Amino acid sequence: MAYGVRRVNELLKKNGWRTDFAVLVVAAALIDTNNAILIQQCPKHKPLAGLWEFPGGKVEAGECCRVALCRELAEELGIRVEPGSLEEFSFVTGVTNDGKPLVLLLYCCRVWRGEVSAMDADALAWVPADQLTNYPLAPLDVPLAERLALLFR
C-alpha cells in the first residue's frame, strides 16, 4: 500500500487537521544483508537528544518525499540513495512542539552507495528488527519499530 502525499492529506483532513501547514517528515529503515536496521542517536544539541531514531528529516516546500529522503540520507549518513530504492512502509502522525500537525513517513531501503557514517548523530547502531524497541526511541519511532518487528518475524 502506498503512503504518498495524497494519502497523508486525506488522513489529516479526516482528523480535522489543515493540510496546508502540516510538517511532513521522511525517514528510512536502512536494512543490511543480515536484516539489521540502522538507527541513529540524536545529538545533544537537538530536541530529542539521546533518543534513537530512524535517519531522515523534514520535506522542504515543493520537494518530493523520496527526493527529500535521499537528500537527508546524504546529509546525515554520507550515503547515496536513488529515489526508486525507497519502498513506502508506514506512517505515523503527531504534533510538533509548537502544535503543528506532523506526519512521519517511513520508507524501507536495502540499496545505497557509500559507507554509512554518523555525520549528524552521536552514534549509529545496526539492530535486529525485534530488538529495536530495546533502545530508547523517539516517541513517533516506537510504533514504526513495532511494525518493522512484525514484518521480520
Task: Describe the 3D structure.
Helix content is 22%, strand content 29%. It contains 3 helices and 7 strands; from the N terminus they run αββββαβββα. The strands form 2 sheets. The protein has a 4-stranded mixed β-sheet with strand order 4-1-6-5, with helices on both faces. The protein starts with a helix and ends with a helix.
Termini gap:
20 Å
The protein's oligomeric status is: single chain
Strand order within the widest beta sheet:
4-1-6-5
Taking all residues together, what is the mean pLDDT? Answer: 90
Q: What is the string of SSEs from the N terminus onward?
A: HEEEEHEEEH
How many strand units?
A: 7
Shape: globular
- Beta-strand residue fraction: 25-35%
Largest sheet: 4 strands, mixed
Rounded to the nearest angstrom, the radius of gyration is 15 Å
Quick structural summary:
The chain is built from three helices and seven strands, in the order αββββαβββα. With 153 residues, it is of the alpha+beta class. The longest helix is centred in the middle third of the chain and has 13 residues, at 65-77.
Main attributes?
single chain, 153 residues, alpha+beta, four-stranded mixed sheet, three-stranded antiparallel sheet, 7 strands
Blueprint of the fold:
Blueprint: H1 5-14, E1 23-30, E2 36-41, E3 52-53, E4 56-58, H2 65-77, E5 86-95, E6 101-109, E7 123-128, H3 141-151
Parallel strand pairs: 1-6
Antiparallel strand pairs: 1-4, 2-3, 2-7, 5-6
